[in-house]
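[Automated response] Your request has been received and processed.

Submitted sequence:
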Amino acid sequence: MNQLDLTFLKWLQEQRTPAMEEFFLRVTRGGEGFWILAAAATLFWLFGARIGYRVGFALAAGDLLTGALKNICGIPRPWLRDPAILPVPQAQWTAFGYSFPSGHTANTALLWGGLGAACRRGWLWIPILLWIGLMAMSRMVLGVHTPMDVVGSLVLALPVIWFMGRIYDWTEQHPSRRGWVLAGAVLLAGLVWGIVRFKPVPEGGDLHFARDAYRSIWGLLGFFGGWFVERQYVRFNPGALGAYRLVGVAMGVIVLALMQENLVRLLAPGLGSEIASYVAAAANPVWILVVWPALLKGLEKPAGR
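Generated structure:
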């Protein structure tokens, strides 16, 4: 299978044209951190808890599992396994860490597949599956992932979407037990940290490759901590904002972009760049779920108007 994967990538490499490379570079950017966060935030700020949290639960848990699997399997990138594979330089620059599974593909499938599962509209699956397929193809055409990497991401996403959707429904039916889910998230984060921290680095690996997994851990803790606070105290209802919700989405995404660009740089002098990146990973979901919704509540229309 390993040789077939690499042979297929070399065949794709022979088919590449400058226009094809540019098209798939644009596609692959949609699977990068800011755009995934911005899309998830927009869904929450526009449609509220049922859709936002179904997507968020799957995305937070799936991103953690993806980071853990990358470090457990320790499979090198395609160009390290076969020097004849020449990835597109712009894509290679963002292809950090191990190869299996594909993070871009997994997060795209978790986000948009979670939306499809939450909305339960058959027609919606057509653009969702098309976009997921384009994302998976982009990672192979650009030479940064193999078919096994992208298929593994899709196989991972399906049960995570289903299971985390059931977990979210359970928390809504039993609000008093939300603390159990928060405790479970903390335990899962600790387990993944222990596995990644103490697993021997495979040949050709790098200790720095674990940073993505650690950021996923902090992101999961920030998400479930933010979810718990929001459900207990904020109870965000975008429908009460009326037309202001569109303004809220625009402003919220702008602040999220500023956080992505500047927060690590601002925190690094006091915390160091590595710890600052982990704190920023936790801060993003807290902004999306708690801080901005709490500020938006001041714009809610009075009842009966």
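Summary generated for your ticket: The chain has a mean pLDDT of 91. The radius of gyration is 20 Å.
If you did not submit this request, please reply to this message.
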